[in-house]
Amino acid sequence: MHELLDVVRRAARAGALAALEEAERGGGEEAGRGSGGDVSLRGDLAAERAVVEELRRRLPSFKLVTEEAGELSFGEGGPVVVVDPLDGSRNYKRGIPFFATAVAAALGPTLGDLAAAAVYAPLLGLEFYAERGRGAFLNGRRLAVRPSERPVVAVNATPKASFLPHALALALSAEGFVIRMLGAASLELALVASGGVDAYVDPWFAARVVDLAASLLIAREAGAVVRVEGRLGDPPLLTLGERLSVLAASSEELAARLDGVLKGALGFGFGEARASLLASGF
Predict the structure, then answer these.
(1) Strand ranges (E), 99-218
(2) 2-142 has which fold?
(3) Nearest partner of 43 among 157, 129, 123, judged by Cα
(4) pTM above threshold 0.90
(5) Contact 226/216 with Cβ under 8 angstroms?
(6) CA–CA separation, 114 and 24 (whole Å)
(7) Which parts of the chain have pLDDT scores under 70?
(8) Domain layout of the chain by residue ranges
(9) 152-279 belongs to which CATH class?
(10) Largest Cα–Cα distance of the chain, in whole Å?
């Protein structure tokens, strides 16, 4: 698996650097819609091309699940490689440096099969990476979650969840939590591993596996408590159609506190999110 880790690290770096180069040539311009349904920027497409080129150079065969091109097979067999070529596209477009390329590789068809992952934020100089059973790292430093006295919580404020993230953020603030909404899910979740935030809350079933697969492995390998549900499978499937609900925290105690606030603010706890949201037609 160590060779697979090297592949995803190189691919993530190639994609992020390609996005930076494209930014000098109008990378923030819209260029249609990707297979995931979101607007694609020229930077998204340049990053994806660079990732795929790197993967094809280093893997004899693999299945690709990526935000822009969708699901493709290169040869027969091999790992499943899940790619978000440019997470934080809105930040990228506006010149905010909080964006990254995320690449994860799995030895089977579900999130439970993740083996290696990398998230690279070029303008922040941050490279998160992890290998299953071997720990998580940031710029070569081994990571381990650590609770803090006044927890900082990142809430995914995707527009797809309407007002719900803001209602939850208000409730969390009233309970004394410090809130962050930073606009790049892969980085926000990875920050749980490094202690940049103490928890990440994303219970809306709006996130795709391409958004969070890499950071889920990184957070787990750093010792975070990670709860994840999928619309399509348990464990969630590595397909573009899968949607996730995620709670990651630096301790079981913090996860329980967050679950309680979620239930008080929105009427459902994390384990009840799927039934409540799907029953409402969300």
Answers:
(1) 100-106, 114-121, 126-131, 135-138, 141-142, 152-155, 178-180, 199-208
(2) Fructose-1,6-Bisphosphatase; Chain A, domain 1 (3.30.540)
(3) 123
(4) yes
(5) yes
(6) 34
(7) 1-2, 26-39, 271-282
(8) 2-142, 152-279
(9) alpha beta
(10) 53
